[in-house]
Structure to design on (395 residues):
């Protein structure tokens, strides 16, 4: 009887001890690790650490990158976590640039999930968040992709205006030498893809139409390296409003090519100069337009008795056929009109050289030479304007 009571007490104590451990794990605050430069932060749940892993041994160290990009080493190297952990990196970034993050070890690529890039134009920074479950190396490449969302500075109530999303792959590469002596060179392979939408924020949905442009068609096509792409969408404002803006939510997809080049000693020991690893990647990000104003139309001038035309003024004007792009007049003789083809399903405009507006203040290159160029003939207004002869004669 005595032994039975002792056994029951021991079982009860074990259950209580396990309960205390479970309670502490469940209610313990998350662990936070910050990089040596203060830009990268890793937030771990207590149960994410495997048995034997000491919090004091966890480090995020910045490494020099030969290309000027950011590279971090997460230590202990090759540590596998029990559950995915949130990674956040904030870095200086121009408004046009979309940073690309890569995760790898000395033996090849390591998966990195749920990658999102968010901009803060007020501080001129970009915040990258991702989910990782393995400690190794991270490189953030800042100059590979650039994107713009262009709008006119001023639009009029009730008059359609064009919003253009454009971007390019610069073809830049990134290189870093690891502590082991291995050099890792990274590039983005062809093809890379873009898909997404343009949206109007809730605050402006009573002012701008349409409220959303889904599945931007030109962006879902595969684009080649060093090529620009663009797509136009039409919006209309319904009431005067200052500081409007439009947002484009995009997903960038492609493949990383990582070339691992061993040091001379490593190559001799391993019997090979290195290896190449190719893995897919996907990043979600936002592009914001600059703020623009919607103004009321100017009231028409009251009709008055017809007057004889001012011959001196009318004799100084001449007709000129123009295309109207973002509210500016571009002489039509600078453009080539093309019919529907494999790159564009409608008649559209191209230009072999840079085009200028009538005032010579705005210069544009063909934004989509392999697609719809400056836009379709239905989307780009074309008309004849009476303009000063001295300007017309320049074209």
């Amino acid at each position: 009887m005595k032994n039975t009571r002792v056994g029951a007490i021991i079982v009860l104590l074990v259950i209580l001890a396990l309960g205390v451990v479970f309670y502490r794990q469940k209610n313990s605050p998350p662990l936070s690790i910050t990089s040596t430069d203060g830009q990268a932060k890793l937030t771990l749940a207590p149960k994410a650490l495997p048995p034997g892993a000491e919090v004091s041994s966890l480090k995020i160290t910045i490494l020099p990158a030969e290309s000027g990009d950011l590279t971090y080493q997460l230590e202990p190297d090759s540590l596998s976590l029990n559950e995915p952990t949130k990674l956040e990196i904030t870095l200086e970034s121009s408004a046009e640039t979309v940073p690309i993050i890569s995760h790898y070890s000395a033996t090849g690529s390591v998966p990195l999930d749920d990658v999102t890039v968010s901009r803060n134009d007020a501080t001129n920074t970009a915040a990258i968040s991702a989910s990782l479950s393995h400690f190794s190396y991270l490189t953030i490449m800042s100059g590979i992709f650039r994107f713009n969302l262009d709008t006119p500075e001023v639009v009029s109530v009730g008059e359609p205006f064009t919003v253009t999303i454009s971007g390019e792959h610069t073809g830049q590469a990134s290189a870093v030498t690891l502590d082991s002596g291995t050099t890792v060179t990274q590039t983005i392979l062809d093809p890379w893809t873009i898909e997404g939408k343009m949206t109007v924020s809730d605050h402006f949905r009573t002012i701008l139409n349409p409220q959303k442009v889904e599945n931007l068609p030109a962006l879902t096509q595969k684009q080649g390296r060093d090529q620009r792409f663009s797509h136009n969408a039409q919006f209309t404002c319904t009431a005067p409003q200052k500081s409007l803006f439009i947002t484009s939510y995009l997903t960038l997809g492609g493949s990383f090519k990582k070339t691992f080049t061993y040091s001379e000693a490593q190559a001799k020991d391993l019997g090979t100069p290195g290896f190449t690893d190719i893995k897919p990647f996907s990043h979600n990000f936002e592009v914001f337009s600059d703020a623009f104003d919607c103004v009321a139309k100017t009231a028409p001038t009251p009709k008055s008795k017809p007057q004889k035309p001012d011959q001196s003024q009318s004799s100084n004007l001449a007709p000129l056929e123009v295309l109207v792009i973002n509210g500016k007049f571009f002489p039509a003789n600078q453009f080539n009109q093309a019919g529907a083809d494999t790159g564009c399903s409608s008649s559209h405009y191209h230009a072999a050289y840079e085009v200028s507006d009538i005032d010579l203040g705005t210069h544009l290159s063909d934004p989509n030479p392999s697609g719809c160029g400056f836009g379709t003939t239905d989307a780009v207004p074309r008309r004849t304007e009476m303009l000063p002869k001295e300007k017309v004669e320049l074209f």
Remarks:
- Confidence is low (pLDDT under 50) at residues 19-27.
- Residues 312-392 form one domain.
- The chain has two domains: 27-293, 312-392.
- Residues 2-27 form the longest helix (26 residues).
